[in-house]
């Protein structure tokens, strides 16, 4: 199920943004333009499917911090509004999901800056007509069951709950469950820790790992799965060699834990352990695990993946992004024009420019 468009209104510097989404979505702009707000707004759609939308906004400082603070039209409700559209590649059916979060009313059981889920709607368009699959206003939710009947969900929603997650987990609404499975499968890689205790530097439990965790903690197991389960590390080894002057990844057969190391041309007789590698090396290896793993998620989002990388590593990074785009959608936010140009050369994706105008994030292209 592919993401085809996305819009966000009233969120931080995003007064009103609408984006058409292709196989590769590429956004480039200077620091402070609002690129991370675009990335974060998309991440909140996943949070809605996981039932954590309210808590994610609360972690940002609550609604008071997350709301657009610029000029609003008189009479409009003060809300964060997210909308995402999807297409099922097998059936050509189109899904639309809409969610609105706002402040608690003056007299309510909620806390002062707690996000309240006000409205949600999920519709399905099969080409003949659009059908409302779920509708939520306040605590009441109506949805289509497995037989297509519009029924009231027996449990009323709390202000902090998303109906999308609650109904998907009930087992009574198959279409909602299918959409949630897609959304919860998305992966967001907002950089990787590179300090001495970074998860990506540590050994991992020897468990078959087809996909990299968002914090990179199972990186060694992802490499071991590629080498010893899938038996294919051609792309992985080529990109690492290109990025690191001919270096070679060493992936021993795991025992109770999985390990990896790096062999560099200057010292071919020695394997350098992860804790000995530079910040740029460990970050590139984590990106390789994310983009070249055995199985890829429906969508990978990368926020400034060029951080800490030497300029010579950007073309191999673009190669990995292009390779991943053959199997999943990729969303890249960067302030590196060199990386954006390299991705465009390999995928044909035209970079959209993100800029600030009168405090508002504007996306051109």
TrEMBL record:
GO MF entry, a single one: ATP hydrolysis activity
The protein's matches in InterPro entries, at most eight in alphabetical order, are given as: ATPase_AAA_core, P-loop_NTPase, RecF-like
Please name one Pfam family that this protein belongs to. Answer: AAA_21
Give the domain of life: Bacteria
Report the SUPFAM superfamilies cross-referenced here: P-loop containing nucleoside triphosphate hydrolases
Q: Which Gene3D superfamilies match?
A: P-loop containing nucleotide triphosphate hydrolases
> For the ATPase AAA-type core domain, which residue ranges apply?
270-341
What biological-process GO terms show up in the record? DNA synthesis involved in DNA repair; double-strand break repair
Q: Which CDD domains match?
A: ABC_ATPase
Q: What is this protein called?
A: ATPase
Q: What is the lineage of its organism?
A: Bacteria, Pseudomonadati, Pseudomonadota, Alphaproteobacteria, Hyphomicrobiales
């Amino acid at each position: 199920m592919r993401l085809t468009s996305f819009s966000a209104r009233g969120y931080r510097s995003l007064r009103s943004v609408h984006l058409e989404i292709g196989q590769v979505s590429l956004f480039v702009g200077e620091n402070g333009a609002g690129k991370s707000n675009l990335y974060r707004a998309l991440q909140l759609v996943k949070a809605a499917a996981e039932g954590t939308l309210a808590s994610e906004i609360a972690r940002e400082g609550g609604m008071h911090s997350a709301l657009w603070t610029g000029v609003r039209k008189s009479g409009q409700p003060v809300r964060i509004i997210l909308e995402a559209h999807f297409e099922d590649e097998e059936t050509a059916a189109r899904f639309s999901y809409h969610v609105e979060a706002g402040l608690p009313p003056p007299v309510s059981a909620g806390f002062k800056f707690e996000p309240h889920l006000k409205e949600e709607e999920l519709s399905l368009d099969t080409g003949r007509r659009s059908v409302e699959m779920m509708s939520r206003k306040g605590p009441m939710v109506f949805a289509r069951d497995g037989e297509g009947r519009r029924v009231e969900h027996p449990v009323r929603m709390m202000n902090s709950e998303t109906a999308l997650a609650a109904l998907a987990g009930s087992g009574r609404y198959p279409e909602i469950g299918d959409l949630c499975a897609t959304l919860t499968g998305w992966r967001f890689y907002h950089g990787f820790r590179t300090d001495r205790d970074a998860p990506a530097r540590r050994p991992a439990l020897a468990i078959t790992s087809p996909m990299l965790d968002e914090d990179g903690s199972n990186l060694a197991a992802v490499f071991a799965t590629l080498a010893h389960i899938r038996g294919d590390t051609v792309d992985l080894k080529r990109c690492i060699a290109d990025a690191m002057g001919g270096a070679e990844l060493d992936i021993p057969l795991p025992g109770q834990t999985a390990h990896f190391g790096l062999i560099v041309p200057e010292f071919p007789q020695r394997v350098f352990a992860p804790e000995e590698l530079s910040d740029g090396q460990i970050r590139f290896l984590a990106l390789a695990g994310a983009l070249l793993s055995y199985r890829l998620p429906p969508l990978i989002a990368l926020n400034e993946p060029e951080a800490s990388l030497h300029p010579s590593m950007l073309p191999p990074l673009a190669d990995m992004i292009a390779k991943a785009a053959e199997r999943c959608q990729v969303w890249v936010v960067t302030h590196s024009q060199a990386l954006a140009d390299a991705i465009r050369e390999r995928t044909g994706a035209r970079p959209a420019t993100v800029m600030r105008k009168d405090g508002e994030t504007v996306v051109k292209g």
